[in-house]
Amino acid sequence: MIQQFMSRQFFAFLITGGVAAIVNFGSRILYNFWIDFPLAIIFAYISGMVTAFVLAKIFVFRASQQALHRSAVFFIIVNLFAVLQTWLISMGMAYYALPSLGVTAYVREIAHACGVVVPVFTSYIGHKRWSFR
């Protein structure tokens, strides 16, 4: 199992996912000008997810023979699980963990960054096995 995380494909996934995470993180800050934090997390995740799908299809899972619409459906399913992880971790960090540790600066940014990082491994496995097989 660990071996699959030591591959060029996983490295490419990390790079494309990193770009998508930057889109996710940056767009959340922009969305927060118009909507509240919990909803901004969801909209930002969707922005990052669209970016991730396009980049993963082009750069990571090029050999996938699966139909585009089928890949998109499975991509959304895998990401629904990931967005739940992201949201729960972000909320838990922002409203419970960080305040209990006395953190007062950049709480939302730290919480959201932690929430974005966690699903990297579960998403890779899901996309490899279902979205782009």
Compact summary:
It contains five helices and no strands. The protein has helices at residues 8-31, 37-60, 68-100, 107-117, 120-131.
How would you describe what is shown here?
The chain is mostly helical and 133 residues long. It has one domain (8-131). 78% of the residues lie in helices and 0% in strands. The protein is built from five helices and no strands. Helix 2 (37-60) crosses helix 3 (68-100). It is globular.
- Biggest sheet: strands, sense, closure? none
The oligomeric state is: single chain
Mean pLDDT: 92
In total, the number of domains comes to 1
Total helices: the number is 5
Helical fraction? over 70%
Instruction: Identify the overall geometry.
Output: globular
**What share of the residues does DSSP label as strand, in percent?**
under 5%
Give the helices and strands as they follow along the chain.
HHHHH
Determine Rg (CA atoms, Å): 15 Å
List unreliable stretches of 5+ residues: none
Number-wise, the strands total: 0
Per-chain topology:
Elements lengths: L7 H24 L5 H24 L7 H33 L6 H11 L2 H12 L2
Helix pairs in contact: 1-2, 1-4, 2-3, 3-4, 3-5
Keywords: Membrane, Transmembrane, Transmembrane helix
Pfam families: GtrA_DPMS_TM
Protein name: GtrA family protein
